[in-house]
Every structure is written in structure tokens, then in C-alpha cells.
Amino acid sequence: MSAGIKKSPSNGSENILTCEDQQAKINEVRKLIGTVPDKLSTYCSDASISRHLRARNWNVKKATKMLKDTLKWRSEYKPEEIRWEEVAREADTGKIYRSNYMDKHGRPVLVMRPSCQNSKSTKGQIRYLVYCMENAILNLPPDQEQMVWLIDFQGFNLSHISVKVTRETAHVLQDHYPERLGLAILYNPPKFFEPFYTLVKPFLEPKTYNKVKFVYPEDLNTKKIMEDLFDIEKLEAAFGGNDTAGFDITKYAERMKEDEKKMPTIWTTGNPPLAASQPVPTSAALSLDSVKLDSNSDASDNGKTGSSVSHGIEPEIVSDHNMAVAPSTTNATDGVDRV
């Protein structure tokens, strides 16, 4: 069966492919990528290639270029080698952290508090964000690819806004973490935040900002929304839950150090969330210079491309204020996948 086209009011035209067609495109991307160093082979699994294809509406050339760029970025930035001691200072105030609970769909939850920003270093903020993304991905259950962001706007003001950090955040998350965001909840943002969203929206792709929802405590639907997504007993009080413990940097540091002990398994057995299928055979003797693209692929990527239907669960949040907003803007101050 050939691909069909579905029109979506939020995402534009989306390719609907059979499983056979999807696998054929995955195989085509793998062939174009070629052989990569062993340490990067995890990111060439069927699941990883599929996320890149969905992020580029199943366009093989664009997905190949996106994946090639990500492999180059990972080889240079080495996100999997970031350790707690390097980012502990950025984490001190609890501006971003992985919660000790998941949502009802089994997705890890990253809590973000822009008002707790404690750094003016764009480099430091982005590096800590990448650390948090890698940690959330490390803790994905085998049947889940995506995560949830819970953004608490308590105490947020204009001084916490940084367009520069937001732009860099959008670049890293959209280009190097495709299809990792399932849902982002902006909890009680102030009215002045909406104009900022309008300002940064051009940095984002439709699939990204359509996954982000405004939620207000005074909205009658809010309680049901949170109950549908989370176990209220485990949910933090700041989001309407019953957990009043709060963030403890000492306990969190212990959790992160324990997680870091899992990191070597990524290179010995493959990362379960990524290696949903057989990895492509690789050779460490070859470098990324061997990864070749068709000479026309760059030219075809000059513009943004619409995103495909997400394979993750994306519950809709109904609110009078329900509008799309850049997830990274919520972390404009704390350095917060194509998400």
C-alpha cells in the first residue's frame, strides 16, 4: 500500500504509512548513513531512525541529514559523558529535575521551575538541560519513548526570560532529541508570558508547540486533567497533588549518582529505550566522515518541515487559555526533543 495523506488542523499534511513502508524508509536511512563508530550505533536503531523520520514527516533525505547532524553533535558534545559533579551547581535550586514518579502512561516526568534560575551561563544551562534529558531517556521503560514536562510558574517574572537561551534550547531539543516530548504542561503561567510565547514561536516547529498546554488552577477542568495524567498521592502539591515533601538536593544528588552507574550498560548491552530493534552493524575503525548524503539533501533542508503524527500518547487539555506555546520558553532562564 502506498502512503496516504492526512490533513491535520495543527500539523498540516502528515504521511500515513504502512508498517512495511515505514520499515523500508528506516532501511533506506540506515543505508544512507552507512557504517558509524560502535559507540554511536545505539542511535541508529530502528526506533531512533523512526523518530527522526517522524520528525521530518517521513522524508528520507531530511531525516538522514537530521540524524547525521545528531551523530556529529553527539560525537563532539558527548552528552552521555556529562556527570553530576559537572552540573551539580546548576541543579542546586531544583530548577530542573526528574521526579520520583511517572505519569499514568509510564512516562518519566521532568519538573521545571524557571523562577529558580541560578545561572547566567548559557553554556551551563544548556549542558544541565542535556544532562536531564539524557537521564530521563535512561529511565524510559522499554515500551515508552517519550517524557512529560511539568513547568511550575510560581514566582516567575520578566527577569527570568532569555530569548538567547530559548533559541539555543529550541535548537538542541528539536534537532537532537526528536519525538522525545509527549506533553508539556505549563502550570499557571502569568499573563505576560503569552506575548513572550508569540515572540519565540517562530523558533519552534508545529509538532513541538502543539504538545505544550497551558493549565490554570482556577480552571474547573484542571483537577481532572491532573488526575487523568498523574497519581495525585505522588504528584507534588505545587501542581495540585498531595506530596508536600518538596525538592531535596541531597537526595536528588544520590539518585543521579546511582543512575550514572547504569551508563556503561548503554555501550555494552544497548540502551533499551533506543534499541527497540536490531542495531546496525558498525565498525569503530570508521569515523563520521564516512557518513555520506546525497548532494541534494542539504538543499532540500533549507526550510522547516511539517511533523508527522506522534506515536506517543498526547492527552488534550481543555482550557479557555489552551494554546500552543514553546516548551523551551518555559525554561528560558534555566536552559531548558524536537521534542
Automatic annotation (TrEMBL):
Query: What is the native source organism of this protein?
Result: Rubus argutus
List, alphabetically, the InterPro entries matched: CRAL-TRIO_dom, CRAL-TRIO_dom_sf, CRAL/TRIO_N_dom, CRAL/TRIO_N_dom_sf, PI_Transfer_CRAL-TRIO
Protein's recorded name: CRAL-TRIO domain-containing protein
One GO MF annotation is: phosphatidylinositol transfer activity
List the residue ranges of the region (Disordered).
Answer: 293-339
Q: Which residues form the CRAL-TRIO domain?
A: 84-247
Residue ranges with Polar residues bias: 293-310
